[in-house]
Write a structure and sequence with these properties.
alpha+beta; seven-stranded mixed beta sheet; binds glycyl-adenosine-5'-phosphate; Herpes Virus-1; 3 domains; globular; BirA Bifunctional Protein, domain 2; 16 helices; Rossmann fold; 27% strand
Length: 471
């Protein structure tokens, strides 16, 4: 297991992820994707979009981020989308009460104080109200990590939605929220899509888009941020069939991660014991990050909560009319909800590898290699002239320009060939093509695969097909 700092440093060094507004000291909980990060992100979204919508029963949508404020009353976010917050009066630091307790439990486990950790965990699992968090913190002497004091305020609810105003007047009638989940944009469009796409239940609606949460504590790089992207799909089913579809979507989503090279031993299921107000079954897919397992996607059976609630708040019918069986009902919903940026971080961690290899002179060195699945790799192919003369750069550049029409490609002439390979290994490029003296005679090139480092010779005219077949 590698340290998170190792991944963060590679991500910065090679242009995957930068701190947002870095020249001003950064903005907490926000990150920017650099040239390689954005390619990786687009490849993840492309793979998700194709797997979810290139089928008969799922339609896409792209709803706006700002929605009518009643949306959030109906969804329950205005009242319930909050985290328990506690302040330390000495250090003026603010914490999520549950996270503070979890961090304390982790410390106890590290010190082998497993019995005490278990007692606190049981209490945490049974929290009913904010005063229960407070009592745990006081009873177990959980100190502020900054001031080391017990100078705590009470625990209060903190709503995570970002507020802003539409139009020129900043008053209560113009308040809107940046959406905290993309899902509601799907629910409010249920009827539009049902009618225009002429779908029949069961069918789904998929969306990729930004969501915003004013998280009390952001932590662990891209894991918990204030601005992030989600890829969500709501599958509308006949009530009573939700268990069958829930199982189906659990399998589909698990297998999607595997199909993109996620190591099975790094994934696990977590069943929700405490269900959200809208759910009757919920599981998370968790990935083993360097700091432990964390959720990357939730599969939730949301019943008819959302559609019924929008029906009530908007006064518009959300029923489905089954003309074949002469039935009408508000469909149940099975949701798959993944974080794009959190997924990107999981794919970065999953890909990172170090191995010892012999260099050209026979001495050993560490090779850092990002073993991305070739569908996700930010650069698919790199092209090098062996030396910078004898017509090799011209031929190499020619091949590069040709490959660029189909693949994200890089052209590199600088440094020894071994160093150029290492640079590509570190960004996870699956194929490197070298143009050498022989190329000029018979138009063959070497193609080297990242993981095996094996090189074979093929004709320049076959490169495109060779890569297409592998990707
Ligand atoms: N519509 C259901 C929903 O939003 P969620 O479990 O709150 O459910 C779904 O979020 C996914 O969105 C999570 O599995 C995670 O990947 C991602 N996510 C949620 N909060 C996030 C945050 N603050 N930063 C990054 N990703 C986040």
């Amino acid at each position: 297991m590698f340290k998170l700092d190792t991944i963060i440093s590679l991500a910065k060094r090679r242009g995957f992820v930068f701190q947002s507004s870095e020249i001003y000291g950064g903005l907490n909980g926000c990150w920017d994707l650099g040239p390689l990060g954005v390619e990786l992100l687009l490849n993840i979204k492309d793979a998700w979009w194709k797997s979810m919508t290139y089928r008969d029963d799922i339609e896409g949508v792209d709803a706006s981020i700002l929605m009518h404020p009643r949306t959030w009353d109906a969804s329950g976010h205005t009242k319930q989308f909050s985290d328990p917050m506690i302040d330390n009066k000495t250090s003026k630091s603010r914490h999520r009460a549950d996270n503070l307790i979890e961090d304390h439990i982790e410390k106890l486990i590290k010190k082998n104080k497993n019995d005490e950790a278990k007692i606190i965990q049981d209490k945490l699992d049974n929290v009913k109200e904010n005063s229960d968090y407070y009592n745990i913190i006081i009873e177990h002497n959980i100190k502020d990590p900054i001031s080391g004091t017990m100078d705590w305020t009470e625990v209060r609810n903190f709503n995570l939605m970002f507020k802003t105003y539409v139009g020129p007047l900043e008053d209560s009638s113009s308040i809107v929220y940046l959406r905290p989940e993309s899902a509601q944009g799907i629910f409010v469009n249920f009827k539009n899509i049902l009618e225009t796409a002429r779908q029949k239940v069961p069918f789904g609606i998929a969306q990729i888009g930004k969501a915003f949460r004013n998280e009390i504590n952001t932590k662990n790089f891209l894991f918990r941020t204030r601005e992030f992207e989600q890829m969500e799909m709501q599958y509308f089913v006949k009530p009573g069939t939700e268990k069958e579809w829930f199982d189906y979507w659990r399998d589909e989503r698990w297998n999607w991660y595997l199909s993109l090279g996620m190591k099975p031993e790094k994934l696990r299921w977590k069943k929700h014991e405490k269900l959200a107000h809208y759910a009757n079954m919920a599981y998370d897919i968790e990935f083993e990050f360097p700091f432990g397992f964390g959720e990357i996607e939730g599969i939730h059976s949301r019943t008819d909560f959302d559609l019924k609630s929008h029906q009530e708040f908007s006064g518009k019918k959300m029923e489905y009319v089954d003309t074949v069986n002469n039935e009408r009902y508000v469909p149940y919903v099975v949701e798959t909800s993944g974080g794009v940026s959190r997924g990107l971080m999981a794919f970065l961690c999953n890909a990172y590898d170090e191995e010892t290899v012999s260099d050209e002179k026979g001495s050993s060195e560490t090779r850092v290699v990002m073993r991305f699945n070739s569908k996700l790799a930010p650069t698919t192919v790199a092209i090098f002239p062996l030396v910078n003369k004898d017509g090799m750069p011209e031929r190499a550049h020619n091949i590069y320009k040709d490959l660029q029409k189909n693949f994200k490609a890089q052209y590199d002439v600088s440094g020894a060939i071994g160093r150029r390979y290492r640079r590509q290994d570190e960004i996870g490029t699956p194929f490197c093509i070298t143009i050498d003296g022989e190329t000029l005679n018979d138009d063959t090139v070497t193609i080297r695969e990242r993981d095996s480092m094996q090189q074979i010779r093929i004709s320049a005219s076959q490169i495109k097909q060779y890569i297409m077949d592998k990707v």
